[in-house]
Amino acid sequence: MSTPSQFLDLDDKVRNFAQQIAMEVDEFEGICKAFDLSVEEGHELTSHPNFKQYLANAKSEWTAAHNATTRAEIKAAIAAENAIPEIYAHIHNRSASDTSKIEAFKALGKLGRVGERLANGGSNAGTAETVKIVINLGQDRKVEIEKPKPIIELSAEHTS
Question: Does the global pTM surpass 0.90?
Fold first, then answer.
């Protein structure tokens, strides 16, 4: 017998699946693979009663003007990630110049934020993983607070 939580899990999966399709950053087969689905199972999810509405909502949100920065960041991150194997191959290419290898290595380091972490002594200070608040009180006095970025958990209740 199906429990309400199983329906919520399926509904969430369909919503997330629709969101990935709306983002158009991967082919359908790749999205299915990311969800551990066969292509046939992916097509089954698209026949879920709420799929079309979820897809329409996700497309509307994804293409909204206020989301332009997020779209650009995500697409740039995907392009950078896709370039990593080529950068790695170039670094190990014996016929490439040392200068180009150094530049490729720098690019690879930036992608992995290696220099940022090393400059922070291996800590999360100054990264998106922490929140830092500085209050200047005047006369060379200030209050600094730095905490790990809070994890916000959301839950939904399903009522019949």
Answer: no
* Residues 18, 55: Cα–Cα separation, whole Å: 5
Token pair, residue 81, equals 């990630």
pLDDT truncated to tens, each residue of the chain (160 aa)? 444 444 458 888 899 999 999 998 889 999 999 999 999 999 998 988 889 999 999 999 999 988 888 888 888 888 888 888 998 899 899 999 999 988 888 888 887 775 565 555 555 444 556 777 777 777 778 777 777 766 555 555 545 4
Between the two ends of the chain, the Cα-to-Cα distance in Å is 17
Q: Enter the DSSP assignment of 92.
A: T
Tokens of 10: 């399926």
